[in-house]
């Protein structure tokens, strides 16, 4: 060890990023010598809550799902000893398309009755029963595991694949589109849009590129309990990290590998670490390394340009509205890749988020490339155009809200996400039959270097990221 290394601060496990992945991993290992480095002032990345103009807003994620017995999220929270301050949204999501409305409620029969009222198909029961059954089976799997680069990892991943084959058999090979066309022949364009708009949110893709398995997990999301988080989504992250050493406002700039350890250079200091967990996206991690082998490993993952456009509103009203709406339009949103947007409102009784009125996060899908190569003026104009379009459409559907009730409005693009949380891509890579085997895993070919987050197995959102956290935790603790 060099003299320089001798005087450096030592850490056993350094976690780069306080997103869902970094925070759940840190909480599960809170008794170890562990430090979480977070570039931003707020914790949680896409699942953070921030303050602007004196009001609080959820930056991206707003729905919390999986806090129910037997589910991975509750299991992790129980292990960590955290009881979240949450409120079940009885109507998980109200889906509105023109004059058609379907409430995604947990109760299957109630949901089916509503669905049949607006998107009747004689096989609706068969279709949705299958979706629900596949989802239920998935969350009961015992050996969910996906890692690479060692014989042991290969063996354990094979056990998982065998379990998948045993449970799902040929269903595993069926594409979402085929299942829809076979089960719901002559499905109307509107009904298909109802399905696809939900998949875009949960899977970042439509039925065209999904498998029956991934479509089932995406569509069955509201058959689980969906929760509103009091105090904002970021409160969950803060609670998860309350017993963990967190270095906020400290960005990791470079990571250098020596024989057995990693030297971390941050905006404030240098550290010598035994293990490094990267919660940066798989596409952004290469920038941190000079070592050619590590760099080229990360560069091997093709950039998935799935990004978000988000509008934040503060309303000077306090009305009891449901927490989440999805509005499906009959036209495309400008500068976006979707014809729908997702509206989340703060709960009227949430003292922090609803102080002086409701706080809204409205999100839709865009691409990072749409916001690149523009002059400042062009960028601002494009952003304003998209924001105003969404606000205008939003007002059409919420007749209890008038334009004059909006006291603050501003928006975020992939550029905004980059400047705050270092990522332009905002969403996991959709898993389909082709991409399943090229997915990044939580371990890397380099000893002591790990990945976690929504661009790594198993994907995005609290449940998807948590699956990866479980695998990573086994690797870190060599179970
Ligand atoms: C608009 C939108 C709405 C969504 N809605 C939902 C929802 O309702 N429910 C749901 O479950 N999921 C939702 N998701 C998905 C979910 O938010 C993400 O999948 C999840 O939050 C990603 O977690 P992650 O672990 O990958 O970390 P990230 O959120 O990517 O966070 C990574 C963190 O690492 C930090 N970081 C990166 N590089 C460095 C560095 N070099 N040094 C220090 N810090 C660094 C970043 O600042 C960031 O805080 C939504 C996502 C978006 C964008």
From TrEMBL:
Pfam families: NAD_binding_8. Gene3D superfamilies: 3.90.660.50, FAD/NAD(P)-binding domain (3.50.50.60). InterPro entries: CrtISO-like, FAD/NAD-bd_sf. GO terms for biological process: carotenoid metabolic process. This is Phytoene dehydrogenase-related protein.
């Amino acid at each position: 060890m060099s003299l320089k290394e001798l005087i450096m601060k030592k850490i056993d496990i350094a976690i780069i990023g306080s997103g869902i992945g970094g925070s759940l991993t840190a909480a599960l290992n809170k008794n170890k010598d562990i430090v979480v480095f977070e570039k931003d002032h707020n914790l949680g990345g896409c699942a953070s809550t921030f303050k602007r103009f004196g009001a609080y807003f959820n930056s991206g994620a707003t729905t919390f799902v999986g806090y129910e017995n037997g589910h991975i999220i509750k299991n992790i929270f129980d292990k960590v000893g955290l009881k979240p301050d949450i409120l079940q949204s009885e109507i998980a999501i109200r889906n509105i398309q023109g004059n058609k409305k379907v409430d995604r409620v947990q109760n299957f029969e109630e949901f089916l009755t509503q669905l049949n009222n607006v998107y009747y198909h004689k096989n609706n029961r068969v279709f949705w029963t299958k979706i629900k059954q596949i989802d239920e089976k998935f969350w009961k799997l015992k050996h969910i595991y996906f890692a690479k680069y060692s014989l042991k990892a290969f063996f354990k991943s094979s056990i998982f694949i065998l379990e998948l084959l045993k449970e799902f058999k040929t269903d595993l090979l069926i594409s979402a589109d085929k299942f829809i066309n076979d089960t719901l022949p002559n499905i109307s364009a509107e009904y298909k849009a109802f399905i696809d708009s939900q998949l875009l949110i949960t899977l970042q893709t439509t039925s065209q590129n999904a498998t029956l398995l991934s479509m089932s997990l995406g569509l069955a999301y509201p058959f689980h309990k969906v929760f509103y988080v009091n105090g904002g989504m970021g409160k969950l992250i803060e609670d998860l990290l309350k017993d963990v050493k967190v270095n906020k406002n400290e960005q990791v700039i470079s990571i250098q590998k020596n024989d057995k350890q990693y030297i971390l250079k941050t905006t404030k200091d240098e550290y010598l670490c035994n293990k490094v967990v990267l919660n940066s996206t798989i596409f952004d991690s290469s920038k941190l390394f000079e070592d050619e082998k590590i760099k080229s490993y990360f560069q091997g993952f093709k950039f998935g340009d799935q990004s978000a456009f988000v509008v934040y509103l503060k309303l000077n009203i306090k009305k009891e509205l449901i927490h989440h709406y999805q509005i499906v339009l009959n036209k495309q949103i400008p500068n976006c890749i979707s014809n729908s947007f997702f509206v989340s409102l703060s709960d009227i009784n949430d003292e922090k988020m609803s102080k002086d009125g409701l706080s809204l996060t409205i999100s839709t899908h865009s691409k990072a490339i749409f916001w690149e190569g523009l002059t400042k003026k062009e960028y601002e104009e494009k952003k304003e155009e998209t924001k105003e379009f969404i606000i205008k459409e939003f007002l059409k559907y919420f007749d209890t809200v008038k334009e004059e009730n909006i006291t603050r409005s501003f928006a975020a693009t992939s550029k905004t996400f980059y400047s705050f949380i270092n990522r332009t891509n905002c969403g996991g890579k959709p898993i389909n039959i082709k991409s399943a085997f090229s997915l990044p895993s939580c371990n890397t070919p380099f000893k002591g270097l790990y990945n976690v987050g929504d661009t790594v197995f198993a994907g995005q959102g609290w449940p998807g990221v948590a699956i990866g956290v479980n695998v990573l935790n086994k690797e870190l603790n060599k179970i």
